[in-house]
Amino acid sequence: MKKITLWLAALCGGAIILSGCNILDKANGIILYGDEEKVLSSLKEEHKGQVEKESLSVKLMHTDGKRLMIMDETSAQYLLEKELLQEVKDGRDTEALSSIPELAEGETLLFAKKEDSDIGFDSLPDQMNYEGNIIIGDGRVYADMFLVVTDESFTELEAEAKTMGIIQYNKDPGGIGGFGVEKEQLVKIEE
Predict the structure, then answer these.
(1) 180: closest CA among 33, 69, 28, 49?
(2) Which of 76, 88, 175, 182 has CB 3.0 to 4.6 Å from 148, enough for a Cys bridge?
(3) What is the pLDDT of residues 143-174, one digit of tens each?
């Protein structure tokens, strides 16, 4: 009986290792994307194990089937501190960004899969600096690319207003789908 138990344990362990699953790297947060009213309503609800919640104003533009999310520097710094801005390395592995360049007036930072991404949005500033294949969390869930602008430029920019809600838990939140917003994303938030 002990041999069968040991074999089953070895098989399970091998399956976990071969599948690339990392038991120690579980999600401890959720990002909610959508209309301000729905996201803020979801943030007001109390859920077991919540540690911290925050809402960030973002803007969204659509063109040629692409979605561009725009955020101000303050929001980008918040995501950076929580290690939610990840650089894609070698196509699959990611590494948390340690910093983003400071913006001068009129400058923007573009985060997209490829440097030569033609974003096709006429109303954006001309001086865009491509900063790499950067994602939020572990993927591009809500937008194909995103742009960081100065706090002042953000308020002046004409685009669809949206909200990003971030909920941090003291454990794995156990899945997504119960918030009724446009998109939900499980993430690993660092403290």
Answers:
(1) 33
(2) 76
(3) 999 999 999 999 988 899 999 999 999 988 87
